[in-house]
Amino acid sequence: MRTPDWPLTATRWTQLTLAEDDPAHLDVDFWTSVMRDSRSNAVCVSAGGYIAYYPTRIPYHHRSTFMGDTDPFGALVEAARGLGMHVMARVDPHAVHADAATAHPEWLACDQEGAPIEHWSHPGIWLTCAFTGYHREFVTEVAREIVREYDVDAIFANRWEGYYGISYSEAARRSFRDDTGFELPKREHDTTDPAWPAYVAWRRRRLSELVSIWDAAVKDLRPHARFIPNLGAFAARDLEPELVKRVYPLFVVDKQGRSGIEAPWAAGRVAKRSRGLFPDRPVGLITSVGPEYHQHRWKDSVAPPEEVRTWIVDGFAQGAFPWFTKFNATVSDPRWVPAVVDAFGLHAKLEPVLAPMPVTAEVALVDPSRAGRIRSGAAHSFPDEDGFYQALVEARIPFDLLADQVLSAERLRPYKVLVLANAEQLSDEQCAAVRDYVAAGGGLVAAHQSSLYDEHGEPRANFGLADVFGADLVSPLRGPIKNNYIALTGEHPVSGGFGPAGRIIGGTRLLGVEARPGTQVPFRFVPDFPDLPMEELYARKDPDAPAVITREGPGRVVYIPFDLGAIFWETLQADHGRLIANAVRWALGGEPEATVRGPGLVDLAVRRDEHSLAVTVVNLTNPMAMRGAIRETIPLPPQTVSVALPPDAAGATARLLVDGSEAPVAVRDGRAEVELTGAGLIEVVHLTWEPR
Questions:
Q1: What Rg do the C-alpha atoms of the chain give, in angstroms?
Q2: Strands 154-157 and 86-92, sheet pairing
Q3: For residues 469 and 516, what is the distance between their CA atoms, to the nearest angstrom?
Q4: 307/379 Cα distance (integer angstroms)
């Protein structure tokens, strides 16, 4: 008999998203071999919603016109069960066919004039509104029919929110007006409209109600079954936290790959982001076997195999179980298969050791994954945090993400350093938690406009953490500024490593601050001077306003009053990365618990239990690291892994989990060192020790 804890053993997922014509030529044997060879233990298969791939009896539930008297969904479920796999049925309710739209116009998303919204990509079908009977009743019945008729463990809903914009259907208008007293906002992210924050809260609440309805509907038929909505890269952002705690056994995050100038560590960030909000929930990272270029939409294509492999591996290195998806069951280009088989095989090899060991870190970067509260309206763009993330990866400082929603004394307790890259919006309670954390000896690195606004986006006259920063606001943000520099004005560890340089590049958006007594100022702004004509390119005045302020008390604090993270992410100037790393290392007060020395770009994860520690090294050293796609994995140059041993450790032994060999260990000054040579994409150094 299956039990509700089945998601804990569903750790490698195959997803097959069927096209309408697939039933005419579905090769079940091929897909069975892929599931077997990849050592997948769970599968997600298209079942219904926009198109049904089983003989549905629900009116207006469009059956594939190529299905005839076959049951492709049932055949794939039977094949997966034959391999002992968990099974999830995929539904997609974001659009309906013309017959349903004609019979039930009240189901459709509408524009401000009340006109139904046609699908942007495929004319003749219509977008649905999540706040109508289509989602509450029709989708519920589809889910119940699938669970009643097939041996499945869950329903997985793609694009379950319906139309992503504001739908002005009559049902949505009426519900919003009855619940809030407002009319629907005329524009998204218009913070001047008092209806906007009310809409954000209402939408989150209503979507959460939907998930509760759907989850209860499937549990009613199969007590172990769950309804799991697909999530974007910001896990659970559209759901009430209490709902997540009650009904979510796992997260499935739809960040299928990278495009443009995006670092491959973005895969691992998915796991960190989820853990930073709900640390006790497993999270899966959906990886597409095709390229992720949304402006071109090559959804039935194949990405370079090494790109797929790297994306999967970096995701599971940071704790996101692997999940791959293929759109269209017809395989015209099978080059993705070996990459998936190899990456999933690596996960299966490492899982027995790594799964019981939680990921740990001494440093936490606050993640501004707040929904609907971004003053700029750029809900998915956080360049300051991206820059700090890149700098910490380059500096090889293991770190976690910590969601700003859960910034509290309890969640801060495990960390030695907290980083606020640009945590603009902090409540008085959150500021108090940070203040107490520093007073208890925690380190803090903060930049830009951190704590300058309250949780509602209202500006403060001074930083909410001015006393902690040792800095007061004296003039508002100005910029963008060209040709800005900061001068080194005294010896301090934060200003170390810049060689003979007397000044380095500064920022583009600057705050005027005054340092409080008892602080040090290792960098000051060079007053503005022209960048043209070239003959005018010289400083007129000596450095004056503080550009970096440090304060040492129970905890060490660094405050940087400019857009350090954002400008590093935009320009990747090495001095900015060094400044971030210096600040974090000084605030930490010593060498990190685990370090990896050597050339190259690596993404690190540290896991530990009572008598062992595992350092996972993902090799991102590649000319395509910051502009995909990766064509090949370049072997990592020799590295030295160094780990601080507990005081009572009686020596240590090391094993390389990917290579499968024992490694010599040298113990010096309480640290165990292991030389790592010949590593490819990933290696894990597993150190164990016995107490004296």
A1: 27
A2: parallel
A3: 9
A4: 27
Determine how β-strand 417-420 pairs with β-strand 443-447: parallel
pLDDT of residue 278: 87
Per-residue pLDDT tens over the stretch 555-595 = 999 999 999 999 999 999 999 999 999 999 999 998 899 99
As beta bridge partners, residue 616 has: 605, 684
Distance from C-alpha of 514 to C-alpha of 466, rounded to nearest angstrom: 10
Burial pattern 233-252, b for ≥16 Cβ within 10 A else e, equals bbbbbbbbeebbeebbebbb
Task: Return the amino acid letter for 419.
Answer: V
Alpha-carbon distance of 471 to 465, in angstroms, equals 9
Instruction: Centre a 10 Å sphere on the Cβ of residue 123 and count the other Cβ atoms it contains.
Output: 8
Tokens representing 123?
Answer: 């004319």
> Residue 45: in which H helix or E strand, if any?
strand 42-49
Per-residue pLDDT reduced to its tens digit, 92-142: 999 999 999 999 999 999 999 999 999 999 999 999 999 999 999 999 999
* Residue closest to 27 by CA, chosen among 328, 439, 448: 328
pLDDT of residue 379: 45
Taking the chain (692 residues) in runs of 10, the rounded mean pLDDT of each run is 86 97 96 98 98 98 96 98 97 97 98 96 95 97 98 94 92 97 92 89 90 95 92 57 79 88 92 90 92 80 93 97 95 95 98 96 87 43 92 97 92 97 95 98 98 92 98 96 95 96 97 97 96 92 97 97 97 97 96 95 96 96 90 94 91 95 94 95 96 79
Q: Among residues 375, 452, 376, 372, which one has the least CA distance to residue 420?
A: 452
CB atoms within 10 A of CB 532: 9
Both ends of the chain: CA-CA distance in Å?
45
- The pLDDT value given to residue 571: 95
Question: Whole-prediction pTM value?
Answer: 0.94
Closest to 561 (Cα-Cα) out of 404, 429, 384? 384
CB within 8 Å of 552: residues ≥ 6 apart: none
Token pair for 124: 């003749």
The upper half-sphere exposure of residue 180, i.e. CA atoms within 13 Å in the direction of its Cβ, equals 22
Tokens encoding 236? 């659970």
Residue 590 to residue 611: CA distance in whole angstroms: 23
How many angstroms separate the Cα of 318 from the Cα of each of 171, 226, 272, 288, 626? 42, 25, 7, 18, 19
Hey, which residues does 425 pair with through a beta bridge?
453
d(CA 600, CA 587) in angstroms, rounded, equals: 25
Query: How far apart are the C-alpha atoms of 271 and 285, rounded to whole Å?
Result: 8
**Measured between alpha carbons, how far is 465 from 450 in angstroms, rounded to an integer?**
8
- Residue 430, classed as helix, strand or coil, is helix
Position 618, amino acid: V
In terms of Cα–Cα distance, which of 575, 598, 488, 17 is closest to 289? 17
The one-letter code for the residue type at 179 is D
| Mean pLDDT, rounded, of the chain | 93
